Amino acid sequence: MAQLLTDGFLRFANETGIIQELWRYEAYGYWALVAVGALALLLGFRVYRGYCSAMLFMLTATVTCILLRDRVSWRAVDTCFSVIGVVLAFFSLFWHRLDACLFCALIGGCAGWVLFRSVWGIIPLALIGLILTLTFPVETLRVMTSILGCWILWDAAVWRGLGIPFIVTVPVVAVGYLSQRLVSRKQTLFKKVRPDRVTHWLEERERKKQHADGISQGN
Fold first, then answer.
1. What is the rounded (10 degree) CA torsion for 32, 42, 193, 97?
2. CA–CA separation, 8 vs 114, rounded Å?
3. pLDDT value for 203
């Protein structure tokens, strides 16, 4: 995952012409990656829209540079991707449900690529992430962003030559999930945290339980 993020960012930097400036801060790249992973792990539910906005801006800039390269002046390209990218990134902050679906589908798709190295591995896991987000948005975001953050941190540790067993990621993801439950327990982004059918089933189950308790107490 860290490699995919790094490659994507370097492609953006290369296309927009800021790659030379970034090399001056190469020593901080590892710590920037650690910060991105830690935020996703512990505060993923709170920051995922910011991540989506940043990715949308970089994608817009990269595609614009590729399409308009050698066709218009660099100043026109710069103005175009700056204006369009900033506008899309700004409005993306308000597309919380769309962002959640795309974000979780992307994480699932990346997992499919890493595991299977095939489109047939990407599509099913991306669809699973999308469907789970549509069904249980809050819980899915907590789990998926915890996995993403742990995945990035683990990759960063491996890059530094730290021999961390993969099994360690399980309690780390659990810590991230619990942290996100704590910080997002009063979330207001999603009014419906589960489908109506599931809510109805839970309500019926609770009603039957209370009815059964009332009968047992009466006896």
1. -10
2. 15
3. 66
- Give the pLDDT confidence of 47-93 residue by residue, as tens digits: 898 888 988 888 888 888 777 777 777 677 777 777 887 888 888 87
Question: 66 vs 3, 63, 73, 121, CA distance in Å?
Answer: 22, 5, 13, 28
Say if CB 103 and CB 143 are below 8 A apart: no
Instruction: State both tokens at 195.
Output: 């489908």
Residue 23 predicted with pLDDT over 80: no
> Rounded to the nearest 5 degrees, what angle is found at the Cα of 14, between the Cα atoms of 149 and 83?
85
Whose CA is closest to 52, among 85, 89, 19? 89
Instruction: Please tell me what DSSP assigns to residue 177.
Output: H
Provide the whole-model pTM: 0.77
Q: Which residues contact 48 (CB under 8 A, 6 or more apart)?
A: 40, 99, 100, 103, 141, 145
Model pLDDT for residues 149-202, shown as the tens digit of each residue? 998 888 888 877 777 787 888 899 999 999 999 988 888 878 765 555 556 566
Residue 217 to residue 214: CA distance in whole angstroms: 5
**Residue carrying the six token digits 């539910």:** 45
Contacts with 93 (C-beta within 8 Å, 6 or more apart), sequence order: 49, 50, 53
